[in-house]
């Protein structure tokens, strides 16, 4: 099972200098923009062997590290 710490590591790799808590708002705060999210989607797909569908590209799925973890877990089935 994956952890929020893994998601935070991926976020830091995708967006160097980003230090966020598990429940910290990422999108509305401006810490992640659409380009960051697309880079994150590619990294999540590669790291966890998942496909993030266009229908999953919703703000609520990327709002926090915990939300991203929930998305990964759901897509892994």
- In CATH, the homologous superfamily goes by the name ACP-like
CATH class: Mainly Alpha
Summarize the amount of helix as a percent range.
Answer: 40-55%
Approximate strand percentage: under 5%
> How far apart are the termini?
11 Å
From N to C, what is the helix and strand string? Answer: HHHH
Secondary structure tally: strands = 0
CATH architecture classification: Orthogonal Bundle
Instruction: Kindly provide the radius of gyration, computed on alpha-carbon positions and rounded to a whole number of angstroms.
Output: 11 Å
The structural class is mainly alpha
Stretches where pLDDT is under 50 for at least 5 consecutive residues are: none
| Largest sheet properties | none
Total separate domains: 1
Average of the residue pLDDT scores: 96
| CATH topology-level fold name | Non-ribosomal Peptide Synthetase Peptidyl Carrier Protein, Chain A
Shape: globular
Total of DSSP H or I helical runs spanning 4+ residues:
4
Oligomer: single chain
């Amino acid at each position: 099972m994956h952890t929020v710490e893994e998601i935070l590591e991926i976020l830091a790799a995708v967006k160097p200098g980003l230090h966020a808590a598990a429940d910290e708002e990422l999108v509305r705060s401006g810490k992640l923009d659409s380009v960051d999210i697309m880079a994150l989607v590619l990294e999540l797909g590669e790291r966890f062997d998942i496909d993030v569908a266009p229908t999953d590209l919703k703000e609520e799925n990327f709002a926090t590290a915990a939300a991203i973890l929930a998305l990964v877990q759901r897509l892994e089935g």
